[in-house]
Input
Amino acid sequence: MKLPIYLDYAATTPVDPRVAEAMMDCLTLTGNFANPASRSHVYGWQAEESVEEARGQVASLLGAEAREIVWTSGATEADNLAIKGVAFAHRAKGQHIITSKMEHKAVLDSCKMLESEGFEVTYLTPSNSGLISVDQVRAAIRTDTILVTLMYVNNEIGTLTDIGAIGALCSEQGVLFHVDAAQGAGKVPINVKAQHIDLLSLSAHKFYGPKGIGALYVRRTPQVKLATQIHGGGHERGMRSGTLPTHQIVGMGLAAQIAQTELSEESARITRLRQKLYSGIQQLSGIVLHGDPEQRVPGILNLAVTGQDDETLLLALVDIAISTGSACTSASVEPSFVLKSMGVKDSIAFASLRFSIGRFTTEAEIDFAINHITTTVTQLRQVAQKTSGKM
Output
């Protein structure tokens, strides 16, 4: 069976072979398999040493200190811990939170849960180009605001938030700043100190590490206090209990180290491939680019093919693996809430596809994708014209 070309790296990335090899060494009796919390024998000591090495590798990617990294099961859990943890720990100071309408569901649903607990949430509306400005945040901050939570890179359209400017504003106003960097870590430079970030979520499977492991950066100076969400053995300095998965943590650490080492070169290559893909698809008429053309992550391209619907396109483009932002409900199919928040019409939103390029994408694959897309869309339009002519 011939598999389609994979252009859905924003959904998940394949584990880098170097990472997979390191993980394999942590699974069997002859490897580094032990519980890192077992401090009564050499097996546990070795596992703990590997976990702490990985903690340092992830911290280095973020410009943080190793002791500021808290292991989680992924960015979803990290978002929950950051948002709910701040809300319940700082409730006496205020109950106002600021986010945006285009955040990941892990953020939006956490905020909705807090609203049911009496918190007030301001949802900022992105511009038509998919950006949240520092002026919007400034206008929304109140005396009772305790947290601003915004994503660095939007997972659907790839736009970049100016987290440095927003972080500086939050620091000046005494408001904690949380960044969901699941789509940004390993793809664009991050420095939590320089960008005034108090909390930052990331997930290994977005930068060629394994699924099921992530981390939350928690600033220590001055220390950010969080209300614990998962209770148990008091692991991770009491912030997140649960036996640490040595093999996954080792994989995430190495993936972070590779991403940091290769970031500049990889970013330039992927940007070039994205631009080539966009230029090739633009040969077709009626192509609409979603999101700011400049202020964006290298690998994500979200386009509308006007006159088509995304489900038909997905079925027709069988030789490439891509995604759509539409969501199925029990009664209907709804357009992407991200695109709707930007003011995109339903007819355009329903015609939109996300292409995401990654480490293992080749130029030949981009050439194939351009030809497949242009040929398929042209055929679909010809069929539509014939059908409408007969009617």
